[in-house]
Amino acid sequence: MNVQWFPGHMTKALRMMEENAKIVDAIGYVLDARAPSACFNPQFTSVVGNKPCIFILNKCDLADPYKLDVWCKYFQNKGDAFVKITATASAEAGKVVSAFASLTSELSAKYRAKGILKPVRFMIVGVPNCGKSTIINCLSGKKTVITGDKPGVTKGKQWVRLQSGLELLDTPGTLWPKFDDELVASRLCFIGSIKDDVVDMYEIALSLIAQLAELYPKNLAERYNTDSRKNADEIFAEIASKRGYLLRGGEIDAERCAKAVVDDFRKGKLGKITFDLPPA
Ligand SMILES: Nc1nc2c(ncn2[C@@H]2O[C@H](COP(=O)(O)OP(=O)(O)OP(=O)(O)O)[C@@H](O)[C@H]2O)c(=O)[nH]1
Ligand SMILES: [Mg+2]
Fold it and tell me: Is 194 a domain residue?
């Protein structure tokens, strides 16, 4: 898969993460619950050192509940703090604030014992479009920071103070400079972490169909009334012709069909899907 990006920019973003990590007490690492492994940057630990970290599995409304349970057990067994949320549902805010508070309870107690009036500070990090800013708005109870359904919405850092006294640092999404793994790159495209205009959407749609045929054949078959044992390009052509994504001469309008398939996934029209399982 030919994914282009701008290494200089991304390296700068990681450097910024490293700098910001020094001025916060803890990290909230947001993972899209549809592809948690793809969202995890292998350079993360070396970038942020040993600050306390809580993993936030977001967009749970779109994710496979069975696989989410497997992820929760994985974090539990590793002793990692984590919380599951749907940031677009405001009712979820309380449990995240409690989870943040419990991760930093020792530090808060230390501040109190010394009479230090200092807020506990969290930096919210994650790949572009995973919902960092939406989580911050959810916790603050109002639209404090800008959000949007494309990557690269947050351009700079921004502090948000919560009523509970916690301070959250919103940051631009960070990718890593190189993808060794095609599956990782493809899943980051599916969830909209990589800009659609730097990838070949036809290739992305074919890859999405192929991965769904393997992992969620029923969902694929039901949505498009097709046989998921067919090849991805056959299924693609079938969708294009059934839905009328055709050019004047009757040829397939591959771009329009590709966008429609990827959009179906992003909007949850293919059902609740999670591609990644935790490492064994
Ligand atoms: N369905 C669903 N959509 C969500 C959820 N959380 C965020 N979104 C949507 O995901 C899109 C991206 O959200 P943002 O909060 O802007 O993402 P971000 O991580 O701040 O993105 P960048 O600033 O570009 O890195 C928006 O359209 C949100 O409405 C969720 O839990 N469920
Ligand atoms: Mg943002």
Answer: no
